[in-house]
Design goal:
Pfam families: Exo_endo_phos. It contains 15 helices and 14 strands. It is of the alpha+beta class.
Length: 445
């Protein structure tokens, strides 16, 4: 009897919920703020889970939002806070830290795509989702299989400039399918792109460009990149001669500019033909062999990282991450103190020399070299104590104007407000340190 009564009560409750005005979406109970949905509404969501729902509008609480507080909190928790003074090592980690903005050499994505026409969507998705593609400065592709009927506007990739391409000439090569090379340049890194050489024959397809990016190390006037594709049945010796002739012309144009040769070389190897060039790709690209290579005139300029191939291509994609250190960062830093030769300081130095007994300095020895060293050491001592250093005074003024500086409390003004209080110095080491020396220079200036 109790079971029948419970069943009738449950059916009556369902009947009432189906005919409530707000039952199609649910309603909120005022006591505990719970949201209840009707059976028909949930069935509609289940039946149309893989397509658009049949209802006109979803409730606000079921709509997917772009970000929630919980998502932002989880995202922030994933960020690892490194200890001060320590950073994650590796070239890719340095690129992620934002050092790619003023990198000495560009990062390059090199791949044999085997038809670029059907891979533009995947390439665009990689640029949007993958950090290696999005921050790359150059995208270099071989075997694009493009023809004159393919419009460059359809090959446009967001974040990169228009493609610089060289399509296969069927009349010159005698081949009606395949071939072609293409370059994409990131405009955030470089906008000055000049095509220097174009070569298309049965043995090689070559495209050479000169780049002058927004930032370059002082030792590089510009950059030359040569993208090549050598057919598997081409004459390797003839192809090498063509590359050598192009390099000679680029060398005459700018001898100090670094030159990089990259692409699909297949059976052709130029390791012994070009002296002074280094091969950077040390990983396999197809069937256990290294067919896609990159040669350069700068030692240890790049480090190769293997990436998955694009679409159905049978060649692995290569990320050439820059590993070159500019000369300005390799040389030891030299700090120079600039003396402030004011008229007042020159008069004080002249008075110091006039009151000096030079016979006392020269009578200590009969050797003229020792006498000269003694006099020079005395002159340098007088100059260091009388002529102030511009660097020391500049840093001291900066510390005084910054109350948050750790040494700001060491510079204390006297009640007059014109001089600083001299710190106590019990040892010569303390007297020659920065704060006492800066206080003396500021008080004397």
């Amino acid at each position: 009897m109790d079971f029948i009564w419970t069943l009738w009560t449950f059916m009556l409750l369902l009947f009432v919920l189906d005919y409530l005005p707000t039952a199609s979406y649910g309603y909120t109970l005022p006591d505990n703020q719970r949201i209840i949905y009707s059976r028909d509404f949930l069935l509609q969501l289940q039946l149309h889970s893989h397509q658009a729902p049949a209802i006109d509008k979803l409730p606000e609480e079921l709509q997917r939002k772009h970000s929630t507080d919980r998502t932002d909190t989880l995202h922030n928790n994933r960020k690892k806070v490194m200890r001060r003074g320590r950073k994650k090592g590796g070239i890719k980690a340095r690129l992620r830290r934002g050092e790619s903005k003023y990198r000495a050499l560009p990062s390059v994505i090199l791949a044999n795509v085997r038809s670029l026409r059907n891979k533009t969507d995947e390439l665009q998705a990689n640029v949007f989702h993958m950090y290696e593609y999005r921050t790359a400065s150059i995208l270099a592709f071989t075997e694009t299989w493009l023809t004159g009927s393919d419009n460059s506007d359809s090959m446009y990739i967001d974040g990169f400039g228009p493609p610089v391409r060289l399509d296969r000439d069927t009349e010159l090569t005698g081949k009606h399918h395949g071939g072609g090379v293409c370059l994409y340049i990131n405009p955030r890194w470089c906008k000055t792109v000049v095509v220097r050489e174009e070569l298309c024959n049965p043995d090689i397809e070559l495209l050479a460009v000169s780049l002058r990016p927004f930032y370059l190390p002082r030792e590089f006037p510009q950059l030359f990149f040569i993208l090549v594709y050598i057919h598997p049945r081409a004459n390797a010796t003839t192809a090498t001669d063509h590359i050598k002739n192009v390099l000679d012309r680029l060398e005459q144009r700018s001898p100090d500019a670094p030159k990089f040769i990259m692409g699909d070389f297949n059976h052709c190897s130029i390791d012994k033909s070009f002296k002074g060039f280094y091969q950077y790709v040390n990983c396999t690209t197809r069937l256990g062999k290294t067919l896609d290579k990159c040669y350069g005139s700068v030692p240890d300029a790049y480090r190769a990282v293997s990436l998955p191939p694009l679409g159905s291509a049978d060649h692995s994609t290569i990320l050439l991450a820059p590993a070159y250190t500019p000369v300005v960062k390799r040389t030891e830093r030299v700090n120079k103190d600039i003396k402030q030769w004011t008229p007042d300081r020159i008069d004080r130095l002249q008075g110091c020399f006039e009151t000096t007994d030079w016979n006392t300095l020269t009578s200590c020895s009969t050797n003229i070299s020792e006498q000269a060293d003694t006099v020079v050491a005395y002159i340098n001592f007088c100059v260091d104590n009388i002529i102030p250093s511009k660097k020391t005074i500049k840093i001291a003024h900066r510390i005084i104007q910054d109350p948050a500086h750790i040494l700001s409390s060491e510079f204390e003004w006297l009640p007059s407000g014109r001089r600083l209080r001299c710190p106590g110095c019990r040892t010569q080491r303390r007297k020659a340190s920065f704060v006492p020396r800066a206080v003396r220079l500021l008080n004397d200036s």
